[in-house]
Amino acid sequence: MPRPDPGLPEGAHYVARWLTLEQQRWIVGRFHEWTRGPVPIRAAKVRGTEMSVRTVCLGWHWRPYRYTREAVDVNGNRVLPFPDWMVRLGRSALVAATGDPRAGDGYTPDTALVNYYDDAARMGMHQDRDERSAAPVVSLSIGNTCRFRFGNTEHRNRPYRDLDLASGDLFVFGGASRFAYHGVPRVYPGTAPEGCGLQTGRINITMRETGLEG
């Protein structure tokens, strides 16, 4: 399938409908298992304000602005391990996004932030800077389409690029774009395709290398 060119900066890549409906349904099934795991899905608090997005973590638990193995701000339990199949998926995603058959070599994500957006959820412009590694971030979307805003590395304002991420879409940012500001200003209700596994809402999986040990 030809990749669309949304005019993204160097290091950012977009592949439409990369995941099949069958793959999406399977991942949604895993999502429901994760939310029933040792650490429940929760809305993190940023500077005392609860986010509208709810998150469950794999490998490492994220809370602003650090990672820990245990969810010390939820119930103290250790989060689920990062699955081997997701490592393989992340490597395949880099190959698909860049067109370089060696792009996934050595890429070993060890954490995933799995975010659930209801119809009213938003994500403000921010950088992913809590990792010690500058390896690419791999982002997968399932469910409702969202408006995704991808900006520059200096500040939250223009220039930025808006594009709609639909169910099954892949977005990767690394290299010169690894620390670009990005956010989700809008979710489009009722746009999830039949058969994706979600009736409402949107799941976004972002895989990262933390560069942490322990």
From TrEMBL:
GO terms for molecular function: broad specificity oxidative DNA demethylase activity; ferrous iron binding; oxidative RNA demethylase activity. GO terms for biological process: oxidative RNA demethylation. SUPFAM superfamilies: Clavaminate synthase-like. It comes from Leucobacter chromiisoli. Pfam families: 2OG-FeII_Oxy_2 (PF13532). Residues 108-211 form the Fe2OG dioxygenase domain. One of its GO terms (cellular component) is cytoplasm. This is Alpha-ketoglutarate-dependent dioxygenase AlkB. Fe cation binds at H126, D128, H182. Its cofactor is Fe(2+). Keywords: Dioxygenase, Iron, Metal-binding, Oxidoreductase. The keyword Nucleotide-binding does not apply. Binds 1 Fe(2+) ion per subunit. Signal peptide: none annotated.
